[in-house]
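task queued by scheduler; priority normal; single chain, no ligands, no partner chains; default sampling; output format set to structure tokens
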Amino acid sequence: MASLSCGAVFVKYILCLFNFAFFAAGGLILALSVWLAVDNTSFLLLTRLSTNPSLQVYNTPSVLEQGAYVMIAAGALIFLLGFLGCCGAAMESRSLLTTYGLLIIVLFVMQVAGGVLAAVYRTQAEDELEELLKFSLQKYYSTPQRANAVTLAWDAVMEELECCGVNNYTDFEKAALWQTNKTNKQLVPLACCAKTKVLRPTSASDMQILPQNDAPLPLLLHDAPLPLLLHDTGGLGQDFGGLQSVDGLQQNGFGGSQQQRDEPFALQQRQRNRHRNRQQQRALSCINNPTASNSFYLTGCYGRLRSWSRRNSSIIMYTAIALGIAQLLAILLAFTLCSTVGGDAK
């Protein structure tokens, strides 16, 4: 093997480091996705043990399986590219570097072709998007109790973009799975309602509705018990600039009885329960009788997505350009090193 020049050695190590990161990330994604596909019960157990409400929506075997297959494909591609680039550069292998460069060229050409087609046939692409949205809604959208990956994606889009259905709420009349599993009087999914956050129900009749900001209701300072105030200033059982500790105050009669100290906490819990009940009543009113004030039932997600893509077209374009430049740089480095090395590593 011929010795490499200083520039070629620099190119070699840049390719090694750059692709090793992709190799490691792809391997991690691939391992996790295979684990999810083969043994999703373990992940289901972890989500049940978690107290994070956002994880509960993924607590469904079908959702995990569908997501795992997508992750397997993405992880395998990233792993393969990272392996070819890293090993090809480390071993100075012309065959591996050539394969690596050709694969990136294929990806680059596909991206360019997709971008050109999307720009030239923009109207047709938007029409195809509308048909795709209708197809996914009609064939795969269901209730949170029987959620799949498509259902979660639709709920996320409707909550984020504040929309309902493809064009409006009437699209759900043709959603076969949703019509089968919903309650009799329900006209729209919960995701179409304003200022609500969907948590995974534990039963068909148990829907937990919380406001967007699911923080405990604040206690007024004068309503807080003395131990709580002292705890907030630095901890229990300490002196605070001349103030006695909690134990000392209680011994002197300033702590009050246990019932008096617990009263603000009970009041707070009652306030939270009343707030939750009001949210549940508003949610039931929304899904059964949607209006412009409690939902987005007349606003379609297709129009919102189209407006979003046009509004962020420059960001999408610059991101695609940056990705294309990175790919061109990888191609250039790979074939530069390939032309420098004398042959495959023995």
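post-processing summary
- Residues 6-122+325-340 form one domain.
- The CA atoms of residues 40 and 61 lie 7 Å apart.
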